[in-house]
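Now for a concrete sample entry.
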Amino acid sequence: MSSPIPERDGARRGDRQHLLLVVTVLVVSALQVAWPARGSAAPTIAAGGPALPAISTGPDDEALLVEALEQVRRGDLDRALRDIETLVARNPKFRLAQLVYGDLLLAKTRPIGGFGAQLADRPGALADLRDEARVRWRNRLRSLDPDWLPAPLLRMSASQRRALVIDVSESRLYVFLNTASGPRLERSVYVSTGKNGAHKVREGDQRTPLGVYFLTGRIAPASLPDFYGAGAFPVNYPNEWDVRQGRTGYGIWLHGVPADTYSRPPRASDGCMALPNEDMSALWTSLDADNTPVIIAERITWLPRAEVEARALALEAAIDGWRRSWESRADGEYARFYASDFTGAGLGRQQWLEHKRRVNAGKRFIRVALDDLSAFEYPGEDGLVVVTFEQSYRSDNFSERARKRMYWRAGPRGEATILHEDAATLRPEHLRGIPYSARSEMSALSR
């Protein structure tokens, strides 16, 4: 493909200035972004918030798209055209890039009235592309501050190599790598979510659930229709908290897109999270299919890393207090940790505590060790934290090792109580819709 396309013979300087004005106005109006003054820093989140990250690996199509729009802003239309031509040649299925490219070419020949003049007769498709442009642009105007973290990311366990954090309002998926110094942002990619937004409540509402989830397996493309693209990772919706709240539905997956598609609009799924196939392929071998947390928020709250660590330490102190009270067989102290509306293993608070008293009365000693502990705040639920760990229990007449999941509620004065406690297992709903050929690759009922 040739580049750049030359100006028409006899074009005057005034024509070029008019072209620049038209293209700049259409881009800015479409994206609803206030351009920073020349020489000023790019906009960031105001009022003490962090500058959000934008990191990816390999060819970065989104960066090239936004760079082309930046060239328009700076008046370098020839370079903008070169960048866009490079992008559409590399990824001709990138509809948003094709739209911007068409606008730039069309504006070379005649004045155009707005962003996406080619789709004026298809307002729905145009609105989808405008929305995609808006969220991609906003992400690229932000830069990473490594001293800030998503508030829910309290503690990754030693066995968790990565954690996924999804901001539904920004159509963004952040991949955090577990390092010796804590979570570090490794990758940031565009993601499409539910047609009707977030906060899934019932089956068929076409919403993406909010909460703390975990990957439960891996479904290879060969086991799926083309609709799912480069494969799928199911998540454990409904989780224990969803069941407690009466939420219904199943089949929430992180998956790719059809082969003839580069990306879907920001809100296009029936509740799943859909990634471009290139990004899905990049994650395919780097994610643990049975232990990766997936935290989904309507809008991520970002906090200084030191504050997140302080919250984690306060919670861990409460958890250790619960463990020690169990070991000491101090029934009153142990009961203090359980909320009045506690549920666990099908029991209410009183039944649970009576069962523990009977069991403890027949023991000469109890030893409890907690390993591989993770803790994540539950988006949209004030003070709720999901804690998962390997529990080693040993007494004079019984020993057991099991994976346990607890839901704690942190109070305003640092106190914490347990709302739910049970083994961390898959539920029958988590297998619905999974091809039988892929079930053997899913984790055992222990995650």
